Hints:
By secondary structure, the chain is an alpha+beta fold.
Amino acid sequence: xxxxxxxxxxxxxxxxxxxxxxxxxAKNAVEPASAPQTQTEAPAESDPQPEEPRECAVRADYLDxxxxxxxxxxxxxxxxxxxxxAKEWAVTLAFRAEEDVADFCLFALELRDMDESxxxxxxxxxxxxxxxxxxxxxxxxxxxFPGDILSNGFSYAEADGTARYFALSISGKDGSLVVTPxxxxxxxxxxxxxxx
Length: 196
């Protein structure tokens, strides 16, 4: 390739680069004068606002990550119902309550069905239950996480008696624990069904 052809190719490449850059997201610096202005009105104080669901009052952490901070805790590893394979691969978690909660329960989730909107329906089988989880006495318990489908959860009763249900999983991104709210679903057979 001679010098003239190289210069022509370089100039053509530079021109194409300029045209492509100019066409990628260039905006008018001047807004049209007739552009409508929109404002968001603050709701009147008398408008009822839907009540936000309260955050989970129980925190779950890997026991090894918080063991030194906890001091004393109840270890229920021998009481939690896990089969031998699950015990071999289980990780021990620490459950801490912000305030005392009643009817604390750990359960295994089993996927039962999916509804039309893609929400999963789980059956819940209790693996551990206590009358309360005290704010000053954390609980250490082993849980088995066999795969990507939710397989563990916990519940408690708030001071007003409202039962709260949560799924517990491990993030595929960073390995952190993920707590997801679940809702109780009606059951004819008397079993606990949860939707999430």
